Amino acid sequence: MDKIHIATILKPQGLKGELKCKLENQNFDVIKNVTEVYLNEKTIPTRVVNKSFRVGYLYLTLSMCDSREKADLMRNFKIYADRKFLQIPEDEYMISDMIGSLVYDQNGNEIGKLLDVQNYGATDILVIEQYKREYLVPFIKDIVKKVNASAKIIVVDKNKYDEAKICE
Prior knowledge:
Blueprint: E1 3-13, E2 18-23, E3 36-39, E4 46-54, E5 57-62, H1 68-72, E6 78-82, H2 95-98, E7 102-105, E8 110-119, E9 124-130, E10 133-138, E11 144-148, E12 153-156, H3 158-164, E13 166-167
Parallel strand pairs: 7-12
Antiparallel strand pairs: 1-2, 1-6, 2-5, 3-4, 3-6, 4-5, 7-8, 8-9, 9-10, 10-13, 11-12
């Protein structure tokens, strides 16, 4: 079974155990068919009773969480789902699939390595290690020309990358 990190629990929502979560992919349709999830590194799945996407957050109700107190104990838990239930469009990627990718320019020269993908609202931000420093680069089509998540390769336009990168 191939488990993928789909969300992180932020806090309880309400009194009946609903969980407010940050999705790893902002496209709710990706997890539309998920009926069970795994918490942290657990091997036993938990049934999803209800899920909704409101104002940029995933709200989950799980079969084993029926009170605010239980939900409060689950803050910062990672939520995983079996990859076979995910519907990932061709032009979208799971962050966990991209982490560790090597970054190349359009001429095949290695630039660095992708450490993380962050989101501050407007667009995803790539955190790339280059020359033992971390740089932040917007994940936009002008800069990122090609992503092959399965081969762990990202190709960028070198000039636009150099113009946009910000040292963290």
